Amino acid sequence: MSATTDAPDALSVSEVNRRARQTLERDLGELWVEGELSGVSRPSSGHLYFTLKDDQAQLRCALFRTRARFVAAPMRDGDRVRVRGRLSIFEPRGDYQLIAEAVQAAGVGELLAAFEALKARLAAEGVFANARPLPCPPRHLLVLTSPTGAAIRDVLAVLAARWPLAQITLIPVPVQGCEAAPAMIAALGLLNRQAALDPTRDAILITRGGGSLEDLWAFNDEHLARAIFHSRLPVMSAVGHEVDVTLADFAADARAPTPSAAAEQLVPDQRELARRLDALSTRLARAAERHLEREGQRLDHLRARLRHPGEVLSGRREALTRLQGRLARSLAGCLAAERRHQQQLAARLSAHAPARRLTEAGERLSRAQARLHAAMPRQLAGHRQQLVAAARELQAVSPLAVLGRGYAILEDERGQVVRRAADTAPSQALTARLGEGRLVLEVTRQLPE
């Protein structure tokens, strides 16, 4: 077997370039490159081609038309710039190049440092803590942007396509330069004051198109971020493109990467709602149809079980006749049993005649009365003798008998018996209890024993 047969399958040139491009884009991703511009070319397509170089190497770059229109730098040969983009390969020619997304003057690094420092300070103060939900759709959307910029056209176009019922009010403000931040702060204050009078105004959108870091710097103003944070109305910020981030974005309640994306987030899509409504209508119709089918089957089943009223009444009449017969037989049996029981009671009553029993009871009562009349005098005499003896014994031990012999009992004001002269005091009133009556006495002095 020849050596060519054992060799592995060879890759095509296009497959090699494709794999190399995929590896570059996957492994390196987006990055910043700083260097000197060289060979800047502006063909009629609107794309921008140039080379970044330093003293040891160079890198070919391409900035496509959709991004090139947002580049504020002059892009002249010899300028030192910073380019953000991703490495790729142009597969037809195998050219290794940087697909640029943004170009900034090299001095932008100082602005970025200032941006990061201010961002950290505001975050520590809680200025970026807003997260109120925005109404969807808002009843009255207030848009702060330039009246002539592409942002308002994109927003209005998306809103008209997705939700034509949206009420929009444009608040024209400058979105670039030293006057932009104060104008937006004043507009926010005015809109919040007006919202107290018009509660339908329920959301604010601050937006503008893309640009360089210097162009967007007004949206990094510290006072604007604080005004957004203190706004009573919820605020959405959509400044620049996806890669552009400002302090206004962090301070707002919600952020969108682009003006168009902001409009998409703020309102639902009427076409999607219509599709959902159609789907729900179809589901409802099918559910109603299935329900009617089930109820129809249930009705057929009940109709099959339903009997004619005459047949039902006939059956009820027969059952009633049977019950009446059972009732008559039961009553006859009960009456016969009660009649037998009455006869038995009458026989027992005649065997125990009340008149005879009353005669016997009268005789017993007469004898008991005679015994009672004979016993009562004897009982009374005995009790009278016992009473006289007890009276004599009581008289013998009674204090009153002692008082009758000339003695007296002295009592103080509290009714206590005085037993010793020492228990009295001069001028003290005492009561003397005699055999008959009482005397009130006064102590004049105590005599020694």
TrEMBL record:
Its main location: cytoplasm. Signal peptide: none annotated. It is found in: Cytoplasm. It holds the Pfam family tRNA_anti_2. Residues 11-103 form the OB-fold nucleic acid binding domain. The keyword Zinc-finger does not apply. It catalyses: Exonucleolytic cleavage in either 5'- to 3'- or 3'- to 5'-direction to yield nucleoside 5'-phosphates. Residues 270-305 form a coiled coil. One of its GO terms (molecular function) is exodeoxyribonuclease VII activity. Bidirectionally degrades single-stranded DNA into large acid-insoluble oligonucleotides, which are then degraded further into small acid-soluble oligonucleotides. This is Exodeoxyribonuclease 7 large subunit. It comes from Halomonas alkalicola.
